[in-house]
Amino acid sequence: MFMRKLLVQTSRRFLSSSTNEILLTYPESNPGIALLGLNRPPVNAMSLSLGAKLREAIAEIRAHKSLQGVILYSTNPKVFCAGADLKERLFIKEEDVPGLVKTFRWMIQDISELPMPIICAIDGIAMGGGLEIALGTDIRVCSSTARMALTETKLAIIPGGGGTQRLPRVVGVPKAKELIFTGRDVYGEEAEKIGLVNVCVDQNNEGNAAFVKSLEIASVLQERGPVALRMAKKAIMEGFEAGPVRAGLDVEHDSYMGVIPTTDRIEALMAFKEKRKPNFKGE
Fold it and tell me: Which of 81, 54, 87, 77 lies closest to 144, judged by CA?
């Protein structure tokens, strides 16, 4: 009921041409936040069409300069994403597989490189490519009933959507090796313990506790400067990849230079002086 209500209170809806596989909404109750919903029943299996529509939605989100955050979720709380559409894969020629996997890999990279913070709400299962999509986000929130795994070795393949690279960066190399080699399931509380998710919350009666918690986090982001959030993400991501701390400090300096000439910075100082909340515009 809660999710249905929220989706009604939106300013816009982004639909695919044939089916509503992707829902991109901008809730009037949460200005500055976009909701990006996977909506391919029954398990959001990642098909060619779903992947294409997701990339279109990502491109649209990237163009919104004033967004302070995005919540990636499933309209079916029981399943975030079960991974690749294996039925579709049966009919794909062997010579076409490398290109398909590469496209999926770069789609997740597109999610990762969105300039604003991306929150992923995992209330159900996230298997294989579904977990790889989640690993491409900035803040992962799961419920106590969530179940996650990189299951590819069970299918005689390996994670191809960045899982072999992002999982070690998130949980450490030894734990990533164990999880990828065995393909075993990780449940909510363990996921939080090992750092696979940022927060694990007790599941509620509606089965969408992770989504509700994600909205709570997003409401905090709504009070932050849009440019500052983008520059903070840039400093962290690019600085981390730069190598030595000194190189990262150069990235931080460049990112800080991006906030100095903004009207939002002056607005924050004036709001502090006048003892009121700032009105940020992303400029």
Answer: 77
Q: What are phi and psi of 193, to 5 degrees?
A: -60, -40
**Which of 37, 83, 128, 129 is flagged as catalytic?**
129
Considering only CA atoms, which of 16, 26, 101 is closest in space to residue 54? 16
Q: Which of 57, 84, 218, 228 is catalytic?
A: 84
70 in Cβ contact with 215 (< 8 Å): no
129 part of the active site: yes
Catalytic residue among 34, 121, 149, 152: 152
**Residue 46 DSSP label:** B
Per-residue model confidence as pLDDT tens digits over 70-110? 999 999 999 999 998 888 888 888 888 888 888 899 999 99
108's tokens: 């997740």
pTM: predicted TM-score of the whole model, two decimal places: 0.91
Active site residue 152: yes
